[in-house]
Amino acid sequence: MTEDAVLDWDRRRRVGLDEAILCAGKSAGQIADILDEATEKRRPLLFTRLDPDSHAALAPHHQAALDYDPMSRTAILGDVPAPDHAPQVAVVTAGTSDLPMTREVVRTLGYYGEPAAEYADVGVAGLHRLLDRIEAIRAHPVIVVAAGMDGALPSVLAGLVPGLVIALPTSTGYGAARGGETAMAAMLTSCAPGLVVVNIDNGYGAACAALRALHLTAPR
Known about the structure:
Layout: H1 11-15, E1 21-22, H2 28-41, E2 45-48, H3 52-56, H4 60-65, E3 66-69, E4 74-77, E5 89-93, H5 99-111, E6 116-119, H6 127-131, H7 134-138, E7 142-147, H8 153-158, E8 164-169, H9 181-188, E9 196-197, H10 203-217
Parallel strand pairs: 1-2, 5-6, 5-7, 7-8, 8-9
Antiparallel strand pairs: 2-4, 3-4
Helix pairs in contact: 5-10
């Protein structure tokens, strides 16, 4: 137990998911203490919202222990399971500006050994890009779709595929996009039945929703 953090090491047994460490608002010293505790216990950890400056502020031996991805601002401590099956989750990105959020999805899935099939830059401004890939996308039982601006892509996709669609609104856009609030409102008011919506830019949450769905269908 660190001085400032009480880590929930039993969470995976209870719910099937480890506690992830949200680094936003934490000092380098607090992150280092968590790293030391996890290393001592020989436990893997997923760190989210670890920005490049915070990562650079860590001691060299802590940096060396982490698999760090600056685009998604995620870091993984320890070994993760190698995928042993084809991707069951498709991660669909409306535009290139949404990639940091979908990379957080992919990295979170990867922490649990779940591969993802990525389909980038298929937003509705060029609908042919989505239609060209729709058969490959619809083959997956779970689909995470990230979009900002008007947030239309998840609704369109949820009207074309039979699987669970998890909408990830992003803060991409100008003015009236309101930092992702417009996209989130559009997804929450979608006429596509059964569309699931997570919070703005919450790639981690979208991945956890996908993992919970996969747990429901896994053999017991």
